[in-house]
Design a protein that fits this description.
This protein is of the alpha/beta class and about 325 residues long. It folds into two domains: about 200 residues, NAD(P)-binding Rossmann-like Domain (Rossmann fold), CATH 3.40.50; about 90 residues, UDP-galactose 4-epimerase, domain 1. It has eleven helices and 13 strands. Helix 2 packs parallel to helix 4 and helix 7 packs parallel to helix 9. It is globular and about 55 Å long. The N and C termini lie far apart (about 45 Å). The chain binds nicotinamide-adenine-dinucleotide.
């Protein structure tokens, strides 16, 4: 790997991006964070990284950063990440998640970026009923939400920029990522949300019967996939998950193992539009990228609870 590489991390003040920034610094690279701090936080950003508070919708501001630093790589994570907000505000979602990636792609070509790695979503890409579980990348995408439609558009634009302008890329489709620095205050990220409530002794509500299945992948494993993709997996799409599914009830029970919390969960109405089941086939990432998850669900949950305990999620 190029030790002196300058790596633009859009969304680098967010949950996954800030963990990537730390790993890049450990590898001796220089992370250049571009983030508007809409959901990310300055305190997440390692002080050894360069930080620009910048909206990816504003290409002029973005270009000043590219012109100044001539980055070697781009890891594109900045996004409007809420599926339900995308349903309520599809135009805003489009501006950040489609126009935003286009701006970053234009500049990546103009300034000769060596590789572009895109954070896409395996959780929303395969639609309501992919029929095969774990689901491989070869299943025809069928996203139903504007968020998913925008992620698929981003993927298609990458192929276009590769074919027409020679930009090298890798697409990573994540399962449900969890771990340190995930916001417990949003509507996504059930592990962070439950952990905060349970640490504070606040009742936990499970939407529906709690048997909605997801592929939960620990953030450090996602970080590792991004670092590998700087050099490997050109022109490929990889699911990044664990190949196994856990229910929301499993999440609740696993957290209970680590948190002194007695009450049973309260079961509320199901959330409209929630997919019943999503599990990703990860064999392609294992075979081509040489990537495998290191964290079991139990180990990842343990690390996450430890982080929330140490970082003030208790009253
Ligand atoms: N967390 C998951 O389970 C998951 C699953 C699949 C894909 N992803 C993708 O991974 C990426 C990172 O997600 P995350 O979970 O770390 O969420 P996050 O909200 O913590 O990170 C997103 C970051 O993008 C920034 N951002 C938003 N709009 C911006 C704009 N207009 N200009 C500049 N910066 C902007 C936010 O401030 C934030 O720091 C996203 O692209 C998301 O779609 C996440």
């Amino acid at each position: 790997m190029d030790q002196k590489a300058k790596v633009v991390v859009t969304g680098g003040a967010g949950f996954i991006g800030s963990n990537i920034v730390d790993a890049l610094l450990e590898e001796g690279m220089l992370p250049i964070v571009i983030d508007d701090l809409s959901t990310g936080e300055q305190k997440n950003v390692n002080e050894k990284a360069l930080m620009y508070q910048q909206d990816i919708r504003d290409i002029k501001g973005l270009e000043e950063i590219f012109e100044k630093h001539h980055p070697t790589y781009v890891l594109h994570l900045a996004a409007q990440i809420s599926v339900s907000r995308s349903v309520r505000e599809p135009v805003y979602d489009e501006e950040v998640n489609i126009k935003g990636i286009l701006n970053v792609l234009e500049l990546s070509v103009k300034y000769g970026v060596k590789k572009f790695v895109f954070s896409s979503s395996g959780g929303v890409m395969y639609g309501e009923n992919p029929e095969i579980f774990p689901t491989p990348e070869t299943i025809c995408p069928d996203p139903v939400s504007p968020y998913g439609i925008a992620k698929l558009s981003g993927e298609k634009y990458l192929k276009f920029y590769n074919r027409e302008k020679g930009l090298r890329y890798t697409i990573l489709r994540y399962g449900n990522v969890y771990g340190p620095r995930q916001s417990p205050d949003g509507e996504a990220g059930v592990i962070a949300i439950f952990a905060k409530k349970m640490l504070n002794g606040v009742p936990v509500t499970i939407n529906g019967d709690g048997e909605y299945i997801r592929d939960y992948v620990y953030v450090k494993d996602v970080v590792k996939a991004n670092l590998l993709a700087l050099e490997k997996g050109d022109g490929e799409i990889f699911n990044i998950g664990t190949g196994t599914g856990k229910s929301v009830n499993d999440v609740f029970n696993a957290l209970k193992e680590h948190i002194d919390y007695d009450p049973d969960p309260i079961y509320g109405p199901p959330r409209p539009g929630d997919l019943r089941k999503s599990i990703l086939d990860i064999s392609r990432a294992q075979n081509i990228l040489g990537w495998s998850p290191n964290y079991s669900f139990e180990k990842g949950i343990g690390e996450t609870v430890k982080y929330f305990k140490e970082n003030g999620q208790t009253i």
